[in-house]
Amino acid sequence: MFRGFYNLTSGMLTQQRNLNVVGNNLVNVSTAGFKQERYTASTFDEVMLSWAGTKDKSYQEIGGPYAYIRATSQIYTDYSQGVPEPTGILLDFAIEGPGFFAIQGDDGQTYYTRSGSFTLDNEGYLCYPGQGRVLDVEGQPIQLLTDKIEADNRGRIFSSAGNLMAQLGVYAFEDTAQLTRNGEGFYTGGQAQLDENPLVHWQYLERANVDLIQQMTEMLTCQRSLQSAAQVSKMYDTMMTKTTDDVGRL
Questions:
Q1: By CB distance 3.0 to 4.6 Å, which of 43, 182, 208, 222 could disulfide with 67?
Q2: Which of 75, 76, 93, 97 is nearest to 85 (CA)?
Q3: pLDDT, position 190
Q4: What is the CB neighbour count within 10 angstroms for residue 249?
Q5: pTM of the complete model
Q6: How far apart (Å, rounded) are the C-alpha atoms in residues 154 and 202?
Q7: Cβ-contact 117, 205 below 8 angstroms
Q8: Of 2-16, 85-99, 184-198, which gets the smallest average pLDDT?
Q9: How far apart are the C-alpha atoms of 101 and 127, rounded to whole Å?
């Protein structure tokens, strides 16, 4: 009798979750190296089967072959290439192709990022502000002491006199699905492997791979779907109340 409430409430929750993902993408449209997320939903039983690691549906369905609730199937990250954009800033770098810069956090853990907006800390180490020091190909922090540098397309950094000072470590992952993004937009986890032949643009930053028009369109679609479900839910509630009152008079 009240099946409609399950469907409508599930629809509202699904659209709200999708709006949260889209909103986060839009907020970070100007964040260097940001990778957009995508939201997918499925029926509750399909999600449970996926978590259990099986596709076997030889079970007795409760309530018949009806899907009352939709649940979050996956929120996955789109790691497609963003556009390298020139900045003219000496300590800016952008990776073209797979790979991440490695950052040694203040807590000693290694974090990975596509954003190469670096600076120098008080001790002359190349760092990502507020996060930690940038690591080289040997996994060691890079100390430059000066920002008067030059760099080639393999991430090798030279002094103004042409002496090799360090080489940026670019690390790739065989399975990016194992990565976890923290609240600061940095990634952890996975099995990092050094990229022996990276392509690194000096004085560039990679733009976010967010398609602004697509995300705005999806946001409007979600908002309209959410509003429609909310309005129909009110109508359904009114109808159920009237039906209950009428039955009570009999």
A1: 43
A2: 93
A3: 81
A4: 5
A5: 0.76
A6: 9
A7: yes
A8: 2-16
A9: 11
**CB proximity list for 5: less than 8 A, separation 6 or greater:** 233, 236, 237
Confidence of residue 232 (pLDDT cuts 50, 70, 90): confident
Cα–Cα dist 50/187, whole Å = 24
Q: Could you give phi then psi for residue 3, rounded to 5 degrees?
A: -60, -35
User: Do 169 and 136 touch, CB atoms closer than 8 A?
Assistant: yes
pLDDT reported for residue 144: 95
Q: What Rg, from alpha-carbon coordinates, does the chain have? A: 25
Contacts by 231-239 with C-beta closer than 8 Å and gap 24+? Answer: 232/8, 233/5, 233/8, 233/9, 233/12, 236/4, 236/5, 236/8, 237/5
124 contacts: CB under 8 Å, gap ≥ 6: 143, 144, 145, 146
128 φ, ψ to 5°?
Answer: -100, 120
Query: What gap in Å lies between CA 35 and CA 114, rounded to an integer?
Result: 9
